[in-house]
């Protein structure tokens, strides 16, 4: 089953230092028009070629005079000056001829006739004159070497007659997607295909870092074909990225190809994710093998490819802004690796709370949803809950401060609300994680979240939500924002091919079920129904298969992967599936009373009361919004 | 002399609100390829079209099995599985066929032969399987409306089969430079010409704000020609900028042209600089008249054009990061205007010190040198020295923290040092202001600066610098970093046409002199010499004309504007001028002793001791660097 290759385990710093010491990269320079140079980095100091202004000019609208001729003028003793003899009219910026040495402002003139004026005060030499070189002096430094050119620098350079400027050239970065399973976006997908999105993302990242990405065609897992593509890219580009095949599996050819064409310096770095990175060189060009898993790829792009590009263009190393936050959950970590943990941040009360993104967050979506990265050093087994940690920010601090954190039960309407908060370019954001109703209650208790959507039936009273809050959240004053009533039921394929009529049928017909995760209100509802029917979970095929959202359940049924699952009406209709109603339930928003005063929460309530929201609910179907936005104090 | 037009005096907020209420701007949308969408802003919510993965796949390298067949396997009871009967081999990411429901990792297999393996533990259903939709679920929200697309969003969108995305279109912003005096960069310059750099800077700014700049040809100050150009631009573009002619002078046609073609809503806002802005509309396109003075133009671009472009593309209003700082000098301000004051910042000791840029800083160069902007509200007469103020940052806070502030006497070698600090992409910066030696001493006393270059002769002892420091800086321990010895003398045109031999000749031959500003060591040296010769300043023609640097003095002579000035040898040679030596002097760096421990100061001392620095001094000529970098404690 293939040969096992052991990867090295360099520390990240050591790996970068070793790699940079081996690379023979030469920064390339180019001369470009100054007017197109914004964002480029100077490769030499820029000195002004002329003075600006390069002549004495008027600083005012008025008349240019010889100051000596104005001596003695005062309120009692007006002096008459004659045009073209004693003065000429000048506007701001007009040059001052040699015979004049001062300007009198138009406001200080009394018109006598077309050709003469009276003045009632004298001017000092050089008064109201902008002297030559006032702005920029010939031969003076405008910007130093290694300076990133801004629009204002362009002003000064062109004013100083520097019309061309030598800058570091952007590197062309070749991107080679490899993998027999890869297909282009837009292809007709068949089972086993993977859409090649990494290479597109790399191209956008390369641009962000200051390079120019050049995508090559997808190469199948074929040693010779990969070799040909790497050769071509190394000839045509300044830096080459190969994705993926960087691991040590059966069809991981990247390292061997680089080794044959050039040199592999490092294969394996003690980081997680991202360990199987390859740092090599072909034809004196850096060639980097990047793992295929999107989060690993992201870590390698940020921590290896970015510094290489920055070095190439003379850019200072990028530093993420960071923020101190309180960790809401213990983070486990391996002693062997430096770990990068995706974090959700929220300003809950007066503290920034950092919550590691759960497994349920997916891969690419976890990067979309992450607000920051927690770096856990090697040789640390984990970081305790409630520790203060430093989080590298992936979003604006202001956005984080204005984000409502929403952790709890899932409903597609949460997405609708998140969008409605933004649709007018609003100042507030909604960021949600789906961990089920009980998870939401725990997140509230832990101060991880502002709001928790829940739908928890009290079996004794037949009422929803209130008793759970009372039971689990102690004495702190709480409120419930009424949201929607919705219908739960069995989601089945279109046409209900197994003719399911009740939960009992799932067991009796030995159907493949898909369940929700522990703590989800919908799972509790299923368990409650099983108990009532005296059915053991073991009798349900697929009871162990856990999904995190109604849509995930519906997708598993829609794809023919399962026969049925419990979920809400809107999830079934969104996926074009059929639905057997079981019960109505109340899906509400639990919140600490004090948070009701937050501007963002007021906006949230406005939205769920709005016609726009109700329109969207009607489109989805299966919702009753008659109480939306009402508040119950607990 | 032309008709006086009175400008309005709207407050900045009111002006913007009124203007936005009048504009009929429609955000334009376009559909673009997702892979090219980074940096664009979504005009609608983006929902995933498919699940990703869209099939169950292996999370490990290993074998796919039916979990039921593994039941009962343990260390004592191995179970043998046969390929293609009980399992198939899968790599990470491979799809799992329907008949299997779990994966056993390759590490947990014992090879029996080519076609069979032994297992010693069972697997649970769905173990090591990445379920369909684990990353993204069909129909779930990827990013909301009004979201600026990042590379990671591109990953998720393409993975979700969203290959095209609707975004706000960048506006095309027409830029019309007007002015009879304007010439293109690279033209043969004659007195009165002004190089058109504003329009180039606008183009770079428009790009930074998110638009596409389109420069039109320079239009002379001719009403009809300006009208034609504005008409054309309003037809072809989404927004039009006219520069300049926005004021109320004789040849300021902009407002009249806009009024004829469309509507002027506002002409004049209570801000300084930037008051004579025009906010109008032609063919339903925003048309803005921007003043010509570069600093005014900058204020208008940042405060009016930026919000208009942001609004067009759905971008959130840009907020400069700001920082609290201690004002080192009183800022005077008019009650009539909201003022924008350019500020130099420095971390001196543990405080960030804000020093308003002096008049000598020039116009475009003051924007290049500014670290931030202090906004002084209307209805305030000024802000007292030592007040805590909020400064909007124009540079990275880290750059400011790593910048040596250098205020004092000018020498071209300060530019050389500033560049040498950057030439290897170093972490430290040097930012200088030229206020003369005494100005430097006062800046030290005021805690405005880290270092002060000075050259002050003690007339009694004939020694330089030390006695001044003792006299003016009280008891705080000081040091002097020895820098260079240099030659002062009379700078005269090439060939010394007036045959100057001594300072006395300046009076005797009635030559046009150019002086340095009050507090400059070179001015003190001149005064000292005049006194020795019993010459009154009144006898020197041009004594009142003050320049801030040696290069400015040399430039005034080089351009034939003056006959002579006092300055250093290197300034004369840089401008190709002749030089009559007067004396040698010691140009040293005064510093508080405690700052010698700063890493940036250590780097500064390394540089002035370096061969590279000495090479540059030899190129300039007239410097003795035998003691460069030596430290004298005072």
UniProtKB/TrEMBL annotation, chains A, B:
UniProt keyword Ribosomal protein present: no
Gene3D superfamilies according to UniProt: MoaB/Mog-like domain (3.40.980.10), MoeA, C-terminal, domain IV (2.40.340.10), Molybdopterin biosynthesis moea protein, domain 2 (3.90.105.10), Molybdopterin biosynthesis moea protein, domain 3 (2.170.190.11), Periplasmic binding protein-like II (3.40.190.10)
Cross-referenced InterPro entries: MoaB/Mog-like_dom_sf, MoaB/Mog_dom, MoCF_biosynth_CS, MoeA-like, MoeA_C_domain_IV, MoeA_C_domain_IV_sf, MoeA_linker/N, MoeA_linker/N_sf
Enzyme class, first EC level, given as a word: transferase
EC number of the protein: 2.10.1.1
This protein's record includes keyword Transferase: yes
Domain MoaB/Mog as annotated: residue spans: 174-311
SMART domains cross-referenced by the UniProt entry: MoCF_biosynth
Catalytic activity: adenylyl-molybdopterin + molybdate = Mo-molybdopterin + AMP + H(+)
Signal sequence bounds: none
Annotated metabolic or biological route of this protein: Cofactor biosynthesis; molybdopterin biosynthesis
Keyword terms: Magnesium, Metal-binding, Molybdenum, Molybdenum cofactor biosynthesis, Transferase
Superkingdom, natural source: Bacteria
Cofactor(s) needed for function: Mg(2+)
PROSITE patterns on file: MOCF_BIOSYNTHESIS_2
Record's function text: Catalyzes the insertion of molybdate into adenylated molybdopterin with the concomitant release of AMP.
Protein name in the entry: Molybdopterin molybdenumtransferase
Species this chain originates from: Clostridium oceanicum
